Amino acid sequence: MENLLKQAKAVILGHAVADALGVPVEFCSREELDVSPVINMRGYGTYNMPKGSWSDDTSMTLCALEVMDKKLNFHSVMLNFCKWYYKGEFTPTGKTFDVGGTCATAIERYYLEPNREVFGVNSERANGNGALMRINPFCLYTYKSDLSLSAKLEVIEIATTLTHAHKRSILASKIYAFVLWELLKNSSKESVKIGLVKAKKHFEKEEELAKYSIIFDKDFEKVKREDISSTGYVVDSLIASLWCLLTTDSYKGCVLKAVNLGNDTDTIGAIAGGLAGALYGLDSIPKEWLDDLLKKDYIEELIERAFS
Ligand SMILES: [Mg+2]
């Protein structure tokens, strides 16, 4: 498992570092960031949090990681989401911040009615990136399992519906999983393309696939920056993250490009950062950024417990 453990660290820390790079400038416009681009870890800004603070994207990822040393139990994940949301656990400083509306609704539903069948919100308006941003642990878990492809996809689906139950969000998580699984098998840009081809083939009958059609275009990398939208809408976030991954040649280049798109900087950074971690490896993440990351040892401990 040595190799999987190192890969899991690359993915989860790659995600957390990029989250922390984006936190101080979340909601800044692209024009503002063009004038003063993020080039290193900054402190304060949007949420007035110290340098190296990661947000909901990483907190909710850790909530899932924490229960992965046992048989996967989605109730345990929801309980951890409650500990994060209500008590400030799984946070860098004991303070919960940057909570998305759909995640909040789902967690409150669970808290009031834990035996309900689905907690996630199933409406077309509830398609923010709040499930995609925390799907990595489930992708790693299914990658190492000997489940069939359909059973792996079912895990990804249930994990998504914990907060986001609309088919568009579910499809985003599944496309992402196809790409990450290929990258874990073979860390090359070609693998990103192979993952996308496999996803397209697998979901060709799903009408929601049309929303993501641009990522399957052979000229996707040639799309201009001004045509890439960096909002918190799950479709925009997946497209923007993959575009940053495919148009750069290093972890650092990818996550800075993602963060400096502006708007949902931390989450698009984090989604791109997990994939870039898998593509370029743990050693590609700048050491000074890892050193700046708050509670890095705690994050590593959770990864080690889950994937050793
Ligand atoms: Mg966030």
Question: Roughly how many Å is the radius of gyration?
Answer: 17 Å
DSSP summary, beta strand count: 0
CATH fold type: ADP-ribosylglycohydrolase fold
What is bound: which ligands? magnesium ion
Kindly report how far apart the N and C termini lie.
6 Å
CATH class: Mainly Alpha
Anisotropy-based shape: globular
The low-pLDDT segments are none
| Topology as a string of helices (H) and strands (E) | HHHHHHHHHHHHHH
- Approximately how much beta-strand content do the residues carry? under 5%
**Major sheet:** none
- CATH architectural name: Orthogonal Bundle
Number of domains: 1
- How many helical elements? 14
Structural class: mainly alpha
Topology:
Layout (H helix, E strand, L loop, with lengths): L1 H21 L7 H6 L20 H10 L8 H14 L13 H12 L23 H9 L4 H13 L5 H19 L3 H14 L31 H13 L4 H9 L5 H16 L6 H6 L3 H12 L1
The structure holds magnesium ion (MG).
Any overview of this molecule?
The chain has 308 residues and is mainly α. It has one domain: Orthogonal Bundle (ADP-ribosylglycohydrolase fold), CATH 1.10.4080. Helices cover 56% and strands 0% of the residues. The chain has 14 helices and no strands. It has helices at residues 2-22, 30-35, 56-65, 74-87, 101-112, 136-144, 149-161, 167-185, 189-202, 234-246, 251-259, 265-280, 287-292, 296-307. Helix 1 packs antiparallel against helix 12 (265-280) and helix 1 runs antiparallel to helix 14. The longest helix has 21 residues, at 2-22. The mean pLDDT is 97. The site of magnesium ion (MG) has 6 residues, from helix 3 and helix 12.
